[in-house]
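2024-03-11 09:14:02 DEBUG pipeline.ingest accepted 1 chain
2024-03-11 09:14:02 DEBUG pipeline.ingest length=178
2024-03-11 09:14:03 DEBUG pipeline.predict start
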Amino acid sequence: MRLRWNEATQNKKMKRTWYVLHVKPRTEKKVAQYLQVYGYFCHLPLYDKIYKLQRRTVKRQLPMFPGYVFTRLLPDERVTMLKTNLIVRTIEAPSPRQMIHQLRQVAHIARTGHPLTPKAEIFNIGEFVKVKYGPFRGTEGYIKREGAKATFVLNVDILGSSVEVSISPEDLEKTDTQ
């Protein structure tokens, strides 16, 4: 009995580490369910995609970052998740604060209801900007131009991917910080 008490005390003292779980294709929601069943923290950003299927329109929720689930785990909890055989590898977040900040920005834009489009690459070309007006106020990212259309790109550095949304150039200001 004393041994179990020491183990429980030791687990409380240990600090959970932020991980990005690289999962097998199309298993993001299943891994998130496992994390919730085990009582672990889980963050899986989703977006709505509308399909035309024959004569119906179908709305599906797809992962914003296909193949990745964000979580905080202790070492033994990580081993438990690896036993599910759905995880390809675990990536320890080198800068958890920056990753959390970027994920909060993505969540903020998703809550506004504007359509988001996941992109597989980070755009380093262009200026680093901050939104000064509108529902995205305070969000930082890059500007990407395609002809006359300007889009605002939010990066998630640890995944090497980004999310983009159309925004008016008048709502932006240049920022030196990155």
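2024-03-11 09:14:41 DEBUG pipeline.report Residues 1-6, 121-125 have pLDDT under 50 and may be disordered.
2024-03-11 09:14:41 DEBUG pipeline.predict end
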